[in-house]
What we know:
Layout: H1 5-19, H2 33-43, E1 59-63, E2 69-72, H3 73-84, E3 87-94, E4 99-103, E5 106-119, E6 124-138, E7 141-150
Parallel strand pairs: 1-7
Antiparallel strand pairs: 1-2, 3-5, 4-5, 5-6, 6-7
Amino acid sequence: MKRSPIAALCLTFLTLAHSAPAAAKTPPGPPDKAYMQTIWTGWATLDPANVAMFYATGPRTFFDVAPLKYDSWDQYQAGVKAVIGDYKSAKFTVNDDAAIHAEGDWAWGTATVAYEVATKAGKVQMGNFRWTVIWQNQNGKWLAVHEHVSEPLP
C-alpha cells in the first residue's frame, strides 16, 4: 500500500511534535507586598519553623535587631528563638512604603514594618523597623538569601 505524501508529512509532524522538549515553565512573578506580609505573618507566630520555607539554606548573612548577625538560616532560626522566647504575642504589618525590584532570578525589597509585641510579663511594645531583603528564585520559589532588619534609634 502506498502512502500519500500528505499522510507521510502529517505523520512526521506528529512524531516531531511529540518528541519535542516540553516548553519551559514560566517562572513565578517576583515577590510582592502580599508575599512580604505572608513572611511577617509567619514571624508573628513566634516560631521560626513557620517561616523556614521563605529562607535559603547554606551560608548566608542575615542581620537582625538582636543579636546582630547570623551566618546561615540554621543559625538564624536557632538564635532568634532566644530573642522571641520572651514574647507571648506579636503582630507585624508591612507598611505602604514597601517596594520590590526584580531582575531575572533576583529580587530585592524594602519596607518599614509596624510591630506590636507583648512580653510574657505583660509589657506591650510598639514601633516600626526597617526591612531590606534579597530574594533568589530557586526552583520556582523566591527565597531570602539576605535580610537586614534594624530599628531606628530613639
